Structures are given as structure tokens and as C-alpha cells.
Amino acid sequence: MNRSSVDFTKVVETCNSLHGLISIGTLNFHSLPTEICALQGIAVDDQRWKWLDHEFLNQCYRGNIHPVFKALTFLIRHRYFTATFKVFQVSVCDRLLPIAIAKVRIYAVPLDIEGARYIRQWRQKWLAQYLSREFRSNWLVLMKVLDYSPRGWHGCSHHCTIDDFVNDSVLILPLNGSDKYIDPFLCPSSFHFTRWLDQLQYFVPQNRSEESLDTVVLRIYNNVAVPDMSGYKNRDFKKKLGLASSGDLITSLINEYPYNSAVLPGVLSTLYPFQVKSLCRMLEKETLVQNLPVPYFKMIVSPSGKVYYFDMFDPGFHLNPELYTSPRGGILAENMGLGKTLICLSLICATKFDISTVPDNLMLYHDQSVRGKENTRRPGMKSLADICQDTIGQNSLPWKFFQDDLPQSVIDKLSRTNGFFRIGLTYSANQYGLRTKEKRMEEDEYQTLFMSNSTLLVVPENLFHQWNHELNKHIEPSYLSKLFVSDRFKQPIHNSNSTYTDNIPENVDQLITYDLVLITAPLFARLSKKKSCTLRDLYWKRLIIDEGHSMSSKSSNLSTLCNSIYAERRWAVTGTPTSGLTNLYMDEEEQIKEQSVEQSPSKKKRKYVVKSKFNVRDDLVKLGNLVSSYFKVEPFHSQPKLWNSAIVKNLSDSTFSTESNLKSLLDSLMVRHNLADVESDLKLPQLHHEAVFISPSYHNKLSINLFTAVLAVNAVSSEREGSDYMFDPSNRQQLRRLVNNLQLSTFYWTGFQLDDVKTLIGIAKHCLKKTNPAGDPFFGNSDRELLQRSLSAAYEAIHNPGWRTASMLHEMQYFVRGLPYPFIRTYGLGVLESLGLGVFGAPHLAAIQEFYYKNRFMDMDDEAALTAKLESGSQKFWENYWNDSARKDNSKFKKQESTHDFDVHGLKEALEDDLRQTRGDFKISPSKSSSGSQDWNSTRDSLTNEVGGGLKITGEKKLVHNVVSGSDVKKATILGSASAKLSYLASRLVDHQRQGVKSIVFFEFEDSAYYLTELLDILGVNYILYATFIGAGQRSNNLADFDSHNSEALGGITLIMDLRLASHGLTIISATRVYFLSPVWQRSVEAQAIKRAHRIGQTHEVYVETLVLRDTLEEEIYKRRERNEPQQEKSDTARQYVIDDTGMQQFILKHNFLPTEGGESEYASFTALDLNSGENEQPDENVDSLLSHKSVQQLQNHTWYKNWRMYLFNPDNLQKLNAAKKQKASLEQLNSELVEGKPEMASRKIPHKQRKRVRF
């Protein structure tokens, strides 16, 4: 007998041994060839089951056999399957003879069965690709019709009725049939795959549609398992005198905490129950290492009750799965504001004495002796002390736990003994790359890693102060030995158990003494690139990356460098591990407030979840990078492409879905609670979210109407088609820019130049005059009406002196009463003759304030002397002002100069030729480039007086009503500003300062923040900036200053924050008032910003106001965002930009002009709804002191309003000016304040009766 015959015999023996095969399911056939043969065969057992002779049946029907049986024939012929059958006599009714139905049992031959190698060798006669392709296609045919239920497998008696046989639902196929088989019910393959997993018989589903990848992934994300520690509940355990094991620690935490806080040493704060569960789950994951099936192996229970596995990446049946070792760590993915920092610190304290051990998954260097190659001679006899010392070090015994009981000599000796192991540089090359390997091999053959009890914590620069603050707040100062490493500490600072420096110790023995090493991410990246860095010489007990979603990018610098760090346990801490897993739980009372309207505010309470819109495939790729690169889960770490081919592809595959496997992987990695679990443990103070609808100011209307006119004229002149039409797809970028500027105009806008508006007028007039060949107007009545309204808006703007001046100087206009005329003539931007008011910009008011404080003792009733002094001072001011404007370096932000100048896009080119033909003398001014610069020399020449430093406009007219005594100058008041929002917000912030309230103002556009900070300086309101142009280190100091600010003693303060910096990680619970300068288009961005203040630790109710300018684009944005959303779930719009939303486009295309009324006030007064319901204040008005801002309450239509009298010269402003002149704190002083806390400042919030009189 030759070798091939022997091998085939082994194949047959293997495939005919049913006890080693896998029972899959059953098929049912009728129309059996009983007239040809008796269907007798070789019996398998004593239950009348016989081997299925597929070749014989194929011959009986001469190939005209059912496609399902053909598929089965291929699988049996190539020894993938084996089948047995049994014929049942089924009675349909009493009048008819029973029909013969053959039930066929299908068995799979597992790929890991004993003797599988013979089957693989035998199949080599066919091409592997052919077998793989045919196996997959034929198994899919079978999978759709098999009955997987245990009842179908075991069947009924030999003689039975049709009801007994069919039971609930059974598919019975004819044995003979057509060549082509079509699923009669067109059910998706995924449905049958699920039926297979659930051991169900064949049935027709009610919903036959395919599920999208988005649906599948969202279902996985929404059902990530919460930590279940019920197995430790009421578990018996005995307290030990020594160090408790992790199991005992978890048991004690679950059963005793918080009744016995000693269970968690070193932690001062009390954890919420859900935080305890998260902590215990993290402890369990760090200590309980499991071997789990790889995610593409699916566990299935056979009809006979036997467990087997199916490989969905390379389809095949297995008795046992491929395994991967679960990482010792994972993702702490609790939602924002739920105390992830405290959980991590508690974990570090709970495992303080644990020391990393020699890993099982690293290839160790062959020589692990203490001296390595130097140990060539046989050593002498070691002392017992040396043996103990080496044993303790190499076995990672937690000797520090017993430190108080040991003699100092023993402690000193053990401190110098650090356990270690060596890895060959061949393995190390996988971490650093080939070039590093070659370079290192020249020096040495191995790398030594020292085991330690240290945790390496990498945090973003802007969160450094927060971690420092949380450590001081939650952890006993002496419990942990801490090293803080940041660029900001040029000079080391040492205090109790903490060291602050800008570098890592070069001595490993020194580094290993710290329990916690906290380092900023930028410095970590820089130090890790060095050739020799002690960070790489330790086998860290734990590596924690705060805001760990940054690790989801394989190409990120931090992700790459973390691969070079060896750590026993790894954690990524983030509330947003991927975009799809970003869920923000909001519980708010929503209120809509109207400024100066008759209706009362409306309220409604609601709970909802804000979810981010995300790209599913990108999200899965990010998740795969975390799994493979950071957590190094095999086989994905060694085969990075396997994640996409085995997991992502099969999630959307309609056949073999890996949904449950991916969910299992996420369950094993993530520590995360859902809303219900958190709510049962935690009740945050109420969140009140209010939409405040504000009526636009006169200058708001002018700007918005100009934008509307531009779009209207463009629509008419382009006939709403072609590349000249703003809404043509080719102009998408330009349209976005225009709509972005339209949003800016709801706060304040000065980007239109006079020439732009004149061009607009010329185009509108041309269109009105245009006629068709018959001599009739070319455009219809509705278009002509649009043109007329556009002309009216343009003429109203250019005829307004204030608008013309603002369009050239880009200053916010403030309207001041009570300044003598010489002040207005020398520093003013304009006048309102009828009211006797002066118009100023913020720099001009600041100069006037400084002038007044310097010259407070002069006789200001002497008009000649006052005028001379003002002219002298104003000339220098104006010279500096023009130079600063030319350099565009005025202040903290860039003003609306050329960066936002309007560009008459497409209109010039579209009409230039036509205009030349109809009006040869008409010229269109060149359109301004967004990168062009304003000609400040010509602006200066056109505005300034030839004599003196003031503007022409203030010297041309004498104010009839401006009769102000010099002694009354200190009573000068700012009546309002040109921006409705600015006036409203200033009223709020002045009130908060008076009441000692901390607040946050979120801005999207720097222009708005620029104008706000200018006014707050003028009014003397405390504020701190947190913006992108401020360095990360300084931002940390700013947050620390905000948190430490004593509002009770020093008055309230506001944090003005860029919305882009408010997304992740920051905790600002000292603030109870939050303002958005405009509606935020993306809900998740808004919710994340709110969570800065409304989170764990907040003890006061939080009030949020979103400012909305009524009857504008903003109101439509707000309504559009609220419309058609389910109450329990709020999702981001799928459109990234406002203009990309169809509904917003339709609103803009309506070309709604805001009505302006004759005699309308040009300023918006400082008025807001009263927060104190009519409690009047009586500020001190002593004749010898500066006046503080005064408010008057008014009751209108059952609603209290507060009108503010803002004094130009006030004690708050004077104090800010004096403070600004003081020398700025040095970096060393700032660092000292960050580490030790800011020294308490003297109180300035003194009762009126006790205030010292300050004479001027």
C-alpha cells in the first residue's frame, strides 16, 4: 500500500469518527428516490441513522439535484463535512399515505481535530485558493437553510404527523431541483448567522433589511458592559496582618467602603459607589490576567450541547480557539465630569507597594546574572543577607510595606537593591526601530530594565495644574513620593514628599524612589527622543496617559514614544476614547428668556444624552490603533493590518459579523458606567440652561442688513445660476467665509469698507436700469423689490457717520454722557448732537481715564487750561494710535481689520463689461483681498484734523446740549455700546463682580473676545483669559489664579475662554455662571464646555446662558438645532458648517432685512433681567470719592429688569490700572504660587459705610 493510500485511509478514519466531529444542524428533504432504491445504507448507530451516500443520490437524479444538496456534496467530498440521514414517515392526513422525509444531520470536521494534518496533506492536490473560495460559497448556501435548533437535531419518532415534524417552523426542500437556488424569502445572510448563533430553526424575519455599519457600531458602543463586581459582594475573607492581595482589597472595598475609609489608605476624599466599582474593576484588570479567544473566533453551542468555534477571518470550524492575553490595564472611559482623576489617584494609592515583576511576554537575554558577562569567575559563598536581598529584589517582594518595622540598616541596603532583568537588543529593536538597533548593537547586546513600584503619568500641559491641584485636594501629602516634571520649572522646587523640576533624574536609583512621576506630554516627547533617558531604563509598574484619545492615532508623536516605554500595566484615561463613544449626559432646566418683551420666560426640565457625529470607519481605525499600538494586544500588535481585515471588514460583512466579538473586546478593555448607574449614586446640582433672545442694536442691524443686501444683489445680478452666484457649488468656500462673517456681525462687525458699499449700490442701480429687448425691466417685481431694499440698507449705512468711522477704525463705539466738549473734540470718534453725547472707542476711553486720574487735582472748570492739556496729551495718544493700527498690534487680539474685510466675490467680474457699455464713467473699485492690508496713512489723512490730535468729525460740530461742569466730570457715564450682546453681557458681569460670583464666557470668534476684554478693562471688571495665543504653561497659571481667586473678599471674576480649548479634561467647578456669546452649532462641543463647570465636585446650581440675537441667523441656528430631535437623545448635526445645512441655506435665501425705525437709539443700553428679583442697591455717592457702578431695578410686565449706570471713572478701573503698572510676577514666583498656592490678597469688597473716602 503506497503512502497516498495510507494518508487517505487516515483521512477517512478521522472524518468517520463522529465523537470528534462538530454537530452543526439539520436539513430536511422530500421527493426521495424511493422508487429506485430503498435508501438503505451503512448504519452509524442503533438509532437508524445511516451514512449519507451523496454520490449515489447524485447519480440517481443524473445531476438534476437541488442546489443545497449540491453544496453539501462539495463539502462532504472534500471532507469539510460529514452527514448522516434518517427517513421519517410523516402523515399529512388520514386519507393520504405517509410521505418519506429524510432528515440529514450535518457534522463539521474541525481544523484542529486529531489527524487534521492528514486532511491538510490530502487536500494539497487542489489549489488552496479554489478550496477556500468554494468552501465559503457552498457553506453560505447551507448556512441559510440549516435548522440549528436542538429539537430539530434530535427529531421525533420514526412515524409521526406533519404537525409533530414541523413543530414551529421547518424548511423542507425537494431533493431534485433547478440549477439555480434563490432564497425564497431573500433574508440577509446576517440574519441566518444570528439564527445560527442563537440555535434557531428556519423562520422568516419580520424585518429583512440589512443593517448599516453605523447601526452595528452604535449598538456595540451603547452596550459596553458596566463594571460588575457583584461576585465580591458578601464574600467571606479574613483580614491579614500583612499586605492584602488584590482580591482581598477588592472584597474589602466592595463590602466595607465607605463605612471604613481605612480600606483605601492615603485618600482623603470619599468616593461615590460607582467610582469604587470602577476602581475595583481596574484593580481586577491589573491583577487578573486572562487568556481570551481572539475577537474573530466566535464561540457557538452545537445542537448537541457541545461548544465549538468558528473563524470568521479565515472561515473554518475549530474545537478550540486561538487565544490572546488580556492586557493588564485598559481604558478608563468614564464620561466627562465623573471623577476619573480621583479614580486614578485612588488606584495609585491602593497599589502603592506593588512592584512590577519579570514579564512573561518578553524575550529575556540569556545571561540574567547580577554582573552579566563580568561574572566570569565562580563567586564565593554569598551571605544569607545577600541572598535575602537578591531574593527580595528579583521576586518583587513589597518590602516597603514593612518599612516601619525594619532597622534602618536593612532599609538602606534594600533601597540600594533594585530587581532587574535583561532583554536582548534584537527584541529592543522592535521598540526603537532598525537604525537604533544597529547603533546600540555596537555598544552592547542587551538592555537592563529595573523593576519598580513607580507609576508614570503623562498629562497634557494645560492639565498639569489640575493634577497638582487634585493631588493636594484628594491625597494625603505625605502618603506618596511625587516627582513633577514640566518645562516651567527651570529652578527645582522641593517640599514635603514632592519635587518639581524640568528634567528626569539621570540616576535610576533616584528615579525609582518615587511612587508617582507626573510629566507633561511635550516634555515627555522631547526627553524620550534622547539617546539615553532613564525613562526607558525602568520597567514601570504602570503607565497612564491622561486624555488618552491622543493615543488612537498611530502616527502621533506621543503614541510612537509610548511604545518605547516598558510598563507592566497600561491605562488610557479619557471620557472620549473615540468620537462614537463620546456621550454627554445632560440634566438641565431649559429656559427661554426674552430681553424687553412682554412674554414671561418659559421653562422645561429635560434629561438627554448628547452624542457626537462621527465617521464609523475612522472611529474603528482609532480604536484599532489603541488595541494594537498602545495596549499591544496580540495578534493585532504583531499584525497591524489584521484589525481591519478581521474585525472592521467583518462588522459590515453581511455574512459573518464580528459584532459580539468586538463588544467582548471592548468589555475587556473599558471601564465605563452608563447614565442610570451614575444617577443612582450621584446627584449633581441642577443645571439651568437659558436661551436669552436679545434685540439687535441699531449698528447690529446696519451690518446684518448689508450682508443681506450683498447676498440679495448677488442672487439677482447672477440670475441665481453660474459661477457668479454665491450659492453655486464652486463658491462653497467663499460662501462659508461670508456666512461666518454674518455670524460675527451678530456681535459686532466693521469689515465692510465704504468702497464696498458704493460698489454694491452701483451694481444694484445697474440691475434696476437693465431692460430686455422690449424695453421692459429685465428683472421681475420681487427681484426689483429686493434691489430697492438693498439700496435702502446701503444708503442708510453710508449716511451714518458712526458707521463710516467704525468701518475705517474698526473700533467698538461707546456712547458717553457727562464729558465736557474738549474731551470729545480731542479723543472722540463722533458725536450725537441731539443727545449731547460723545462717541468713543475703548482705547480712547482708556486714555481719558488715565488723563483724569493723573490730573485729578486740576481745576477742570478752567476750559482753556483743560483744553490745552487735553490737546497736548491727545496728540501723543493719536500718534501712537495710528502707529499701532498700522502694525496691527493693538492688544491681545487682532481687530477686524483686513482679516475680515468684505470681498465682493464674483460681482465685479460678472458685471464689469455690462457696466462699461451702459455707463462708461462708472468704475467698480477693486475687490479687496482677504490678505490685503488697510492703507492707514490715507485713513489717517481723511479723518484727522490738520491742527490738534482729534478727528475732523468731532471738531466740525459744537454740541449744543453738552453743558458739563468740570467738577462733574467724575460723574460721566457710559450709556451703552454699539453691540447689543456686549451691553447685555457687561451688565451681567458687573453684577457678578458685585455679588462675588465666578463665571465663564465661551467665545468662538476672537473679535468678540477682543471687544469684551476692552470693555471689562474700562469698567474695572476682573477677568482672566484662556485663549490659544497664550502658552500652555501660562494657561495653567491662569486657571490656577481663577480657582484660587477669593470672590467673597475680592469680588467676582470671569474666565474668558476659547471654545476650542474647552473640550477635554478641564475642571472649573468654582464657576457657577456660564455664557456662550452665540449658539454653538455642534451640540457635543457645547455640552463639553458646560461640563467644565457642571461635574463632580460642583456644590452649587449652574446657570448657563446662550446669547441669541433675535430675528437673525443665530435664532434660526438655535431653532434648527432644537427641531426634530428626540427628547432623550441629542445628536450633532451631520453638517460641519452652518451653511452646509439645507435649512440654513433656505433661511439665508429668504433675504430678510431687519427693520430700522426713525429716531432709533444708536446704542444698546446696559440692561439685563434682574437676578435678584427687585432688590435695590444704594451705592455710596460721596462727593469726594469715585462712584461705583449703580443699578436700578424696574418692573415691566411682571419681570424685573436691572438698568446699570456705568461710571467712566470708577474705583474698580483705577485699581486695575494701578495693578497693571506693577511689575509682572516672575516665572519662579508663578511656579511657587502653583505649588504652594497663591497668597491671600487684601479684601476690597468692603461695606459702604466702612469704606475710606478717597479724595480727588
Indicate the mean pLDDT.
Answer: 79
How does the helix and strand content classify structurally? alpha/beta
CATH topology of the domain at 972-1175 and 1185-1236: Rossmann fold
| Total number of beta strands | 39
The low-confidence runs, each spanning 5 or more residues with pLDDT under 50, are 371-376, 427-443, 597-601, 896-933, 1126-1130, 1242-1256
Most strands sheet = 11 strands, mixed
Strand coverage percent: 15-25%
CATH architecture annotation name of the domain at 972-1175 and 1185-1236: 3-Layer(aba) Sandwich
Q: Percent range for helical residues? A: 25-40%
Distance between the termini: 122 Å
CATH homolog superfamily of the domain at 972-1175 and 1185-1236:
P-loop containing nucleotide triphosphate hydrolases
* Level-1 CATH class name of the domain at 972-1175 and 1185-1236: Alpha Beta
Number of H/I helices: 44
Looking at the structure, what is the overall shape? globular
The gyration radius over C-alpha positions equals 39 Å
Biased composition (Basic residues): 1245-1256
Keywords: ATP-binding, Hydrolase, Nucleotide-binding
GO cellular component, one term: nucleus
Protein name: CIC11C00000004560
